[in-house]
């Protein structure tokens, strides 16, 4: 399908795609595919007011009924899967299977949220006073701002939106300037679900705002947006987090990762190689969870690097729409430049680089590269820095303690893993003195997390949790209630206060 066919399949009209000020380019060939309208900064107050008005209605709709809307959203996403997946490929440059996988992730979180809509449980708690009952109830919070990145242009919104909506909160979404069309397409899909749902879905329950940092900043600074979920660089989070906290809002931050794999002497190397290649070069190294550091035991490092070099040598790089391609383009030329800078820095720190070359002639206009494997003498400044490109730094270790120290000695704390068949090593890695990351896996790579678990990480990754487990609590406020059904008024802690 060419670009225009994909846009048509997602319901865009010619007038929606022209006459605006934001140029949208496809990483596949660098071609401008649309020029869309941006949200005027002065209309942000009205956008937020609409969301607040929607909140007043939506918070009183019973949660299982709110879940029905998300169930319909999941149905509409199933119907739109091929078209939306192709749009993710067009706008973010993901290979077809990963574009579709991202939409599947949206469907999965909708299913999860539907079940959740009947399980927003609070506790009942034993009171120390006779004739008293203590319990907690979870209530909606209010508008949830979502600032998302180009690399997961639709799934990250759905993690937030599906949960926020069953929790009783409207959503205002500011997508990356690089991927606004996928956001507008999701809004169309959401509106289809609303049309089927009926009148108790208020106008403005989900809104998309288009523009740059100043549009996002309007959400970040507004007291009327109590929850602000932001995915992107640590630099961005460093600005957003304190601003939201300063106005007593609740930030949910998903920032940089610098994810490692430890390969122990007992590891199944064939399996490790497959996991490494998928997690280091999948999405052209542009996932937060991409494998960026390989910490291999000195007894297996040479063999592992040889196997990897062989696998890297035959990786199909090219047009992400073509069957068989595994590595699509980087998002733009600036990413390519950042990758080259990181590689030259690594070289000057003693690194030996394999690959990392520009692939010309695949699709003119796109930023295509062969993934790089870089043998490093140690964990240098460049290795500690996240570069959003397919670069895998390889280091070696002697003792497990040394490997865990290396794994933890970076500013980021998102995802991590160990390949070992030794239960002592596996459990040590998962223990309190093991990996310091939000995600720690055994015999699985660091990327490709399922929606059932809570997703997020520590340190410069920002501490936020989204998606599964009890991440929904981040979208609600907890109310603790004590009811006295006795005829006396005893005070807690034995305090006497007789009047
Ligand atoms: C991200 O890279 O921004 O674990 C999110 C994964 C995906 C989510 C990644 N499920 O790779």
From TrEMBL:
The keyword NAD applies. GO terms for molecular function: aldehyde dehydrogenase (NAD+) activity. Keywords: NAD, Oxidoreductase. PROSITE patterns: ALDEHYDE_DEHYDR_GLU (PS00687). It comes from the Bacteria. Its EC number is 1.2.1.3. Pfam families: Aldedh (PF00171). The active site is at residue 254. Residues 20-480 form the Aldehyde dehydrogenase domain. InterPro entries: Ald_DH/histidinol_DH, Ald_DH_C, Ald_DH_CS_GLU, Ald_DH_N, Aldehyde_DH_dom, ALDH7A1-like. Homotetramer. Belongs to the aldehyde dehydrogenase family. This is aldehyde dehydrogenase (NAD(+)). The lineage of its organism: Bacteria, Pseudomonadati, Pseudomonadota, Alphaproteobacteria, Hyphomicrobiales.
